[in-house]
């Protein structure tokens, strides 16, 4: 503490507190949120930076965290040598991207890439044997972990106050450091202002510094940011501004321990941050561009091929979630049953609900993360049965809490050892994970207030879903949600769904089916101009993405005349499951020789406690197609495309397309960029090795090994099989079947969409008269097929 400070320069009048708070707000907004494990939502970790070109963000990230947003040069060299990137791809990337390079210079770059950019260093990283930022991560884990901690924390008014109080009594740190901390205010805002005044950095430099420091505890920063999204009432005392105050205070302590020379070096590096993207960085992005063009050429070739015509009068229409895993099954189902036609729609089926079952557990939202559930699902349950269920769940919850009580180490195992031993044996002998199930709903109720929803609300929900599905032409409509099965898997929700709060779509399908079967609702939508066949009935089903089995929730009220069509659908679904499993099995290393053994092996993967990869999830996702099914029917998209039906002729004003570009497109982009980020920047945005995970807070997230840093994104086992990478890191290619003018009008009207497209966070294409063509602000450019 005896070292003189180089930050005694008085703050100029223009560098007032508001400027620093604005700079800090920009820094915190650059951190994307995360959700709890049991409400998993795939997130684009660069969402807060979408208003900047992706290459510029990548360069800034390499400066702040030492990790650019592209693969290493070796990755592109192998793709070039194996023909995955062709000379045509590279030339097209040079032309379309406006890169100031030649093919020769780019190939030479891969042979001898220059040294990586030297990253910015915090004060702690400038010291030998530095402590780093793990102490801050430990404080976050202790503050937020109200489920697993052994001793209860004292009440603290805020995260920052909790850290400052505990740090002052942490005997691991020198007394001078603990004493210096007392000089900072107990209030986060006041502390930030004092530190900013002491350093007297320019506001834009202060922004870069704050963002860099938050990246040192990126997982916890994302968690604190997420509080403002999913738990906003806790934002003031535990949001990301509180964590920003902590990292700034920690850096303030570190700077004070540097020598005068080191302090000068520390200050100088922040003031010389160069936003210009260096040539070598652009070269890697040109290779990434070419890598993505290679996929787009293959996609253009597939889409240009003749399509199979869907049945003109189908017996069954089956609506699946747009999830990429549905693409394989839909293709095989239509082949197995020519009288069945399939549709693609967002898997929550336009039902913004929460599943509030009886019991002590909190309600689970069953909507995309950017939406809030407006209704809760009610269940028919006799009073006595409800009481018994509540008591059973309360007992389970009591045992969970007892496991983590201070004295449980000495008493719980001895008291319940035999019972727990039997449970372990029983679960270990189970041959497969239980099929996901959901009870039939009794009705919908308002989330706040609890009263049943009104007739006009039911009709509005039904019309919204039927608008997305198009005009039903079959008397039997099956809404197929999807779910997954796996035991001992903290990331189970990420396999269930990448969008809808980590919940399967079966409940949403049952709610929607009950709503559409309401005769009063049917009459109302018909009067509103929606044409429905007669008879018309809707059933719900669940597609298990682990085993590719479809379970239909039968309904005694279904007209008997539809029984034959239902039996035909169930038989076709069984055949489709067989062929889909056969297609998926090699990538999972399943070498069973027949359908029965293959199904048994896959089902056992879900019940195996030691299986880190029950299925591949949404690995290799690469495209979103908004078009009639006729464009893709009978064509193999290799389980890489999200498929959402869109009929341009039924949307002359573009309102439906605008909704699709503002919802499913954003969700698909979030999923795509989470996989991309976990692959190209795994240390920062990946969850690490699943075998070393420990769950924090029961459901908050995971840490790896003995590190207190919260890991976000996808674990290695969801991307790699040993050393082999199973996910191709590609930005999403969106294909739309619509007129140019309609698409361009939406881009001009929606800044979020414009940012994603114009700054290259995704690629926008459309089906033109001569094939696939890609949008750029300068116009539409054709993509030649392979």
Automatic annotation (TrEMBL):
It holds the Pfam family DabA. Zn(2+) binds at residues 321, 323, 482, 497. InterPro entries: DabA. It is found in: Cell membrane. It is a peripheral membrane protein. Keywords: Cell membrane, Membrane, Metal-binding, Transport, Zinc. Its cofactor is Zn(2+). Signal peptide: none annotated. Its main location: membrane. Belongs to the inorganic carbon transporter (TC 9.A.2) DabA family. Forms a complex with DabB. Part of an energy-coupled inorganic carbon pump. This is Probable inorganic carbon transporter subunit DabA. It comes from Vreelandella vilamensis.
